[in-house]
Write the structure tokens for this entry.
Amino acid sequence: MKNKRIFFGILMGFLLMVGMTFAAPTESQAAAKSSTAGLTSSKPIKYNKKKKEITILTTVNGTYFTQPTRHVIVNVDGSNGNKSLLKTNATPKEFYNDLKKVGAKAGNNLTKDSKAGKKVKGTKLSVYFVINGKRVKAEKAVQVNKKNVKNLDFRFGGNMKTNNKMKTGCVLCFDSCPVGIASGAKYGFQYGEHFTGKSSVMPKDGTKMAVVVKVK
Amino acid sequence: MRTRLRVLYNGIVIGIFCSLLAWKSPWLQMRIPLGWIIPVVAIVVYVCYMFYGKHLEQNWAIFRFSETSIISAVVVILLILIYGLNSLVTIFGATIREMFNAEWSLPITAGLIFGILVIWFIALGIDSYLHPVAKIVSGDKINKLTLQSKISLVVTITFLVLLVVGYYVIPGYHDFINKMSVMLAKLDIKAIRDYIESFGVWGPLISTFLMIFQSILAPLPAFILTFANAYLYGWYFGAALSWFSAMLGALLCFYIARGVGRPFAEKIVTKNALAKMDGFFDEYGNYTIIILRLLPFVSFDEVSYGAGFTDMKVGSFLIATGIGQLPATIVYSFVGGSLGGNKMMMFIALISFIILIVVSLVARKVLQNRQAKQKINVSK
């Protein structure tokens, strides 16, 4: 009887393993090579000095179509890597340097001790999600407290020092943030997790999507 | 081995419930991968089984198949009610995949784990059909100082000490208690109503806290709160809220007494007094509780404590409390509902109040007669 049980347990474990392997989309050679907007997971970010644009390759995290978050784009290796609407292999440092290269100026006006409600400063940015080959304003693809939002007023906050120290991997945030490289100035510091992606606009969970950040 | 698999299953199911519930708190879900709650809870449940089930031979801690089924069903129903199916699939999948830092498809991950749990559950069902697990005859002797009663004594005392120390240490809690005591003692219905209302959405929760608070502190009256609830939320919902929170309060009193335990109580209150109480409960049985709850303006908290000192079963205590509370709660809610100036309500309240008094007096009479008969039988 006991042997039967042990066998049963092993079978269970085996089933679990098999299931996991099937459920996990293994990143094959082909997937690594497939490019979206000329980007791959090994080269996830590029900039265009003439157009003053930066393009980042991201992966959609469908969890945040139903759950609220404050993180738009976070690097997968950061401590917030699983907490954002979009994951990316690009690092905050690359994004920061590229923004500098296309002529944006960092605000650097927020610290972790700033008063709640203080708004981020810096060069204005427009953020577009490339969905089915079309550029869609980021504002169109998200909701705040289940309501539509017109303009999140993204800025180049800078924050490279804090970002290096915190290791959160934050690239772009919805509300004013002393850690993210860029963040939205419409909502002040510590506004909180109130942002959800619209499943009607956003591509499916797990889809690769390019995000364009344009310096105004 | 079989028992271990069963306990592990329960641990995982309860763990999943806890971790999915944690998604309700954005603050929490933004700071930790919630999936890790599952193994932690599973280990806690397993330790409970090792200690309470194996060592202390408590029935609840061996998770017989009937308990396993109830836990599984309650977890599934609650989660679907809280989240709806679509969100549930999303967060369940997200919880699992976050643990492994993977990018698996949400529905497939959720479906797979759910499938495994269903197979596991069916296997446990077949197993329990083939090898039924007998109920343990509890070695729980209420009059003896066992390891278990020592543990509950320590836990209860710690809990009470924390309650008291918290009063001096936490300013918000301190103010809350002071405010409440004054309002309840003054029977200031309007003030209580405004106070509960000021919490907005959290009002019902605060009201529940108040009810529990007044249960622990015996002298404070509960009917004022019942009025206020009905005044605020209408008689129907108000009555439900009052009934539920009073049940919680009674249960807490019961468990405080149970935790302090007989041997310790005998040192404080004399053996004689406890024996008298036993006799009282023995004579009337569960009717005592129902009758005492029926009578308006009788502070019931002492009875809850008293019941905890006797060997009464928790289940029968709860059922008796629930039934006994119902009429009074409904009548007081009528009164509370009529405070808004509703003439019809006022009339109904008055009539029901009279009926309540009459019924409880008649019930008391009937009981006394029964007792008298029993005495005659004994003397024969």
Observations:
- The CA atoms of residues 327 and 377 of chain B lie 33 Å apart.
